[in-house]
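[step 3/7] inverse_fold.run input=structure_tokens len=440
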């Protein structure tokens, strides 16, 4: 018996030694091929962290998504943190500087290259190559912002197209026809004039036909420039083109609506209200994205949405997305990828759509009742999808954050009435070009 045990022990030792000399099957596979295994009895699941910006109510939705993910993947535990926009980016920069980043974090598409070029993001292409069907149902235009020569370092989770929100009650009372497909900027301007009124009879305008955020390009002026045949930035990302003759036509339109027609409040006037002028029932029209729908659903007036108007070069709108990235410093990239896969699945996309803030990137979900027949409010959701036909991707380039601040802050004095349009615009273009040169 003792001899049998000794022989068995020697054989077992030999097997262990031989096994140790052989390469691990996982070691010879790309990262995406490594499969997360259920924890052993009594073992602890792998913990990963996920950070995103958003309103407090979004945390509950993300937690629901996480709960469903964990039920399907008991070997992984996800902790979720949702912060407001400013706090989110400040904390993210601090964590990256300390080399303690969240495993997965949300990314605004225009800022993507600033992070990707710093080498702080994991290349997701090996994972995608292992699941080539993953992106087949994703709207192609939403992927454009995340492409790089060596693959994707991020993927979109949802997107926004900008449309015109309009107050049906104001239109009805003023006898103005609702916006129709194919309408123009001239149509919008004339409607805005009629809808701008002194409803109290005290000689002061208290109802505006149109209001818009002119600081960032996404909501108004990029659409205006594209529809007039202009561009925002050159294809090689070295020249700012917002001062071209075509672009100037769009700027002049907004300038005249504000200072000549008085149908659009200047920055000082709108700032006095301290409110969303459309939601407060002070403005009849505003261009904005789907993220306002849950908030606007509580409005006491009837409203709907219409496509952006056409200019001399046709219709145009902006498309932007929120995406996912995995930190290069993550110690659990495989598990982080599994979470992204789940959010991009029909189940994950359905849960995000139920929140009502954005448009799902999966066609099968976006073009289903899940999106088109949302319960929050009865509006023409199809307009957001139809706008893809003439949508331009919001530009993505290195130095975007600094460039947009130079443009937004530089043009701000025009909308307060402190400076003239053309000389200010020319100065801004020079400053913006300097940012591009610095980030080339």
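[step 3/7] decode complete -> sequence:
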């Amino acid at each position: 018996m003792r001899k049998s045990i000794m022989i068995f022990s020697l054989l077992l030792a030999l097997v262990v030694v031989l096994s140790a000399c052989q390469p691990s099957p996982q070691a010879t596979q790309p990262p995406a091929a490594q499969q997360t295994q259920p924890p052993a009895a009594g073992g602890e699941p792998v913990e990963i962290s996920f950070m995103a910006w958003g309103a407090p109510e979004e945390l509950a939705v993300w937690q629901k998504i996480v709960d469903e993910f964990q039920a399907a993947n008991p070997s992984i535990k996800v902790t979720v943190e949702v912060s407001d926009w400013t706090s989110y980016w400040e904390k993210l920069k601090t964590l990256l500087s300390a080399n303690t980043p969240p495993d997965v974090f949300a990314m605004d598409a225009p800022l993507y290259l600033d992070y990707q070029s710093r080498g702080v993001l994991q290349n997701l292409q090996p994972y995608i190559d292992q699941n080539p069907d993953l992106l087949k149902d994703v709207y192609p235009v939403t992927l454009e912002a995340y492409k790089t020569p060596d693959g994707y370092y991020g993927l979109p989770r949802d997107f926004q197209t900008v449309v015109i929100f309009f107050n049906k009650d104001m239109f009805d009372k003023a006898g103005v026809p609702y916006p129709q497909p194919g309408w123009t900027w001239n149509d919008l301007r004339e409607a805005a004039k009629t809808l701008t009124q002194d409803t109290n009879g005290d000689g002061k305008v208290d109802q505006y036909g149109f209001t818009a955020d002119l600081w960032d390009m996404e909501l108004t002026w990029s659409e205006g420039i594209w529809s007039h045949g202009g561009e925002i930035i050159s294809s090689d990302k070295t020249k700012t083109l917002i001062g071209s003759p075509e672009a100037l036509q769009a700027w002049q339109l907004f300038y005249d609506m504000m200072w000549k027609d008085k149908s659009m409040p200047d920055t000082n006037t709108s700032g006095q209200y301290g409110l969303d002028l459309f939601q407060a029932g002070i403005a009849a029209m505003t261009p904005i994205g789907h993220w306002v729908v849950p908030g606007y659903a509580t409005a006491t007036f009837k409203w709907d949405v219409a496509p952006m108007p056409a200019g001399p070069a046709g219709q145009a709108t902006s498309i932007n997305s929120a995406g996912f990235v995995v930190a290069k410093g993550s110690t659990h990239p495989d598990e982080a990828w599994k979470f992204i896969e789940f959010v991009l699945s029909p189940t994950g996309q359905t849960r995000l759509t139920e929140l009502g803030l954005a448009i799902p990137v999966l066609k099968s979900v976006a073009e289903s009742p899940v999106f088109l027949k949302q319960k929050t409010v009865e509006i023409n959701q199809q307009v957001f999808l139809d706008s893809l036909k003439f949508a331009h991707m919001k530009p993505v380039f290195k130095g975007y954050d600094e460039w947009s601040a130079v443009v937004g802050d530089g043009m701000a004095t025009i909308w307060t009435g402190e400076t003239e349009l053309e000389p200010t615009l020319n100065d801004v273009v020079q400053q913006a070009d300097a940012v591009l040169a610095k980030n080339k």
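[step 4/7] annotate
The two ends are 77 Å apart (CA to CA).
Confidence is low (pLDDT under 50) at residues 1-37.
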